Amino acid sequence: MPKSFGVKEYTALRPVQDHVSNGSVSTAVSIAVPESATLLLIQAISKNVRVTLDASTTATATVGFQVTAGTAQYFPVGATTSVSVIEESASATIQYQFFE
């Protein structure tokens, strides 16, 4: 697990909400960021997915940060972050959780 994002040291992560599993990402899905969240952990389970973090860019099958199947990625987030996720190909499943 990364120790630092250059802004804050993460020594003990506290979940902000429950763990979520979503198998319906064939169209771009917006994920609401909880007010106190500072970190998003997202895992692509079965297929690659794309993630965008700004309000002006919606994730597409070719646009966004790629999270490859079987891997997890951490993203720093804040109250103004707009998370969008979509699968690159059919039948992707994601799991995610926010932390502070």
Topology:
Elements: E1 20-22, E2 29-31, E3 39-44, E4 49-52, E5 65-67, E6 71-76, E7 83-87, E8 94-99
Antiparallel strand pairs: 1-8, 2-7, 3-6, 3-8, 4-5, 4-7
From the structure above, extract its key features.
100 residues, mainly beta, four-stranded antiparallel sheet, 8 strands, globular
What's a quick, concise take on this entry?
This protein has 100 residues and is mainly β. The chain has no helices and eight strands.
- Kindly estimate the percentage of residues that lie in beta strands according to DSSP: 35-45%
- Which residues sit in consecutive blocks of at least 5 with pLDDT less than 50? none
Average pLDDT taken over every residue: 92
Query: Count of helical segments?
Result: 0
Description:
The chain is mostly beta strands and 100 residues long. It has no helices and 8 strands. Strands 1-8-3-6 form a 4-stranded antiparallel β-sheet, with no helix packed on it. The two termini are 15 Å apart. The relative contact order is 0.36. The model has no long low-confidence stretch (mean pLDDT 92).
